[in-house]
Write a structure and sequence with these properties.
Helix content: 40-55%
Number of domains: 2
CATH superfamily of the largest domain: HUPs
Strand order of the largest sheet: 3-2-1-4-6-5
Number of helices: 10
Largest sheet: 6 strands, mixed
């Protein structure tokens, strides 16, 4: 487990890396907030903190944006202590106290429930996730939170889309913003435009006190691991493919898919005119623009200020 160290432990080069990376992540998050209207004046944002790199980064970036935002919103960090064996109960309270952020530790023994319901050796993640969501939604209501912020990033969203395509028969990913399962909260994912590789580097430079996610002893989700490996292989062999996939998730053409509930195919006649380019199965090669892996999904500084204003 990592222990938090002072920024003075960083070399001059590392401090420069951290400054640039933090600026980039702020811009990614600012863009997502503006594009999907995630945070509004007067919001009380419940940041779900697991002790992993992503939720730490989410809390850190939101706290930075709060300092410069021209609107007022509150942040409360919430961790669910599921009573897993060996869970270091002191780590998160100590860390959050050092930040001076409002927080709450919710204690529920979901570990015992999962162990009772799931046979030994089977993946417990699905049941554990459902129990965790229900408890966190209840906590959000009790704490008066208007938004629930989760730490899923760009790679999580792409992996979920691929999982649903391969195993669920649906073209569906993680939403950047949607109403919660119980219909009572708005769930937001401000890290939607952030790459996992950047979050890993950020966690290392910030010395976040990472808590292992496998304390429960559950086997990893092999399907998700396979998808992750496939995407990593694609990234190595075909630079820019992952960026292009994420761009595609933001450029849906319903008329060129096959969902009759999404597009009214039955009403099409020869008088309907050319719809979204007509009967082209693939855009012309000379009109395609490859998304480069080093293309920035964020905006420049002056536009970031506008993003923050739109929160």
């Amino acid at each position: 487990m990592q222990t938090e160290l002072s920024s003075s432990s960083l070399t001059a080069q590392q401090k420069t890396q951290l400054t640039k990376l933090e600026k980039r992540l702020r811009s990614h998050v600012g863009k997502a907030i503006a594009k999907y209207n995630m945070i509004e004046d007067g919001d009380r944002i419940m940041v779900c903190l697991s002790g992993g790199k992503d939720s730490y980064a989410l809390l850190s970036i939101l706290m930075l944006l709060k300092q410069s935002a021209p609107i007022h919103f509150d942040i409360i960090a919430v961790n669910l202590d599921q009573k897993q064996p060996g869970f270091p109960e002191h780590v998160l309270p100590n860390y959050l106290e050092s930040l001076g952020v409002e927080y709450k530790i919710v204690e529920e023994n979901t570990y015992a429930i999962v162990k009772e319901k799931i046979p030994e050796g089977k993946t417990t993640c699905s049941l554990c996730s459902r129990l965790r969501r229900a408890i966190l939604y209840k906590a959000a209501k009790e704490l008066g939170a208007t938004k629930v912020a989760l730490g899923h990033h760009r790679d999580d969203m792409i992996e979920t889309m691929m999982l649903n395509m391969f195993y669920g028969g649906k073209l569906k990913a993680m939403p950047a913003k949607l109403v919660s399962d119980n219909g009572e909260q708005v769930v937001i994912r401000p890290l939607a435009f952030c790459k996992e590789a950047e979050l890993i580097q950020y966690a290392q430079l910030k010395f976040f006190p990472i808590i292992p996610c496998n304390l429960c002893g559950s086997q990893p989700n092999l399907q998700r691991q396979n998808i992750k490996q496939m995407l990593n292989d694609w990234h190595e062999k075909f630079p820019g493919r992952i960026e292009s996939m994420f761009t595609a998730m933001q450029n849906i053409v319903p008329s060129h898919l096959c969902d009759a509930e999404l597009f009214d195919f039955k009403s099409i006649t020869k008088d309907s005119g050319i719809i979204d380019g007509g009967d082209l199965a693939f855009d012309q090669a000379d009109e395609l623009t490859q998304v480069k892996p080093d293309n920035k999904l964020h905006l420049v500084n002056n536009e970031l200020d506008i993003i923050e204003i739109k929160q």
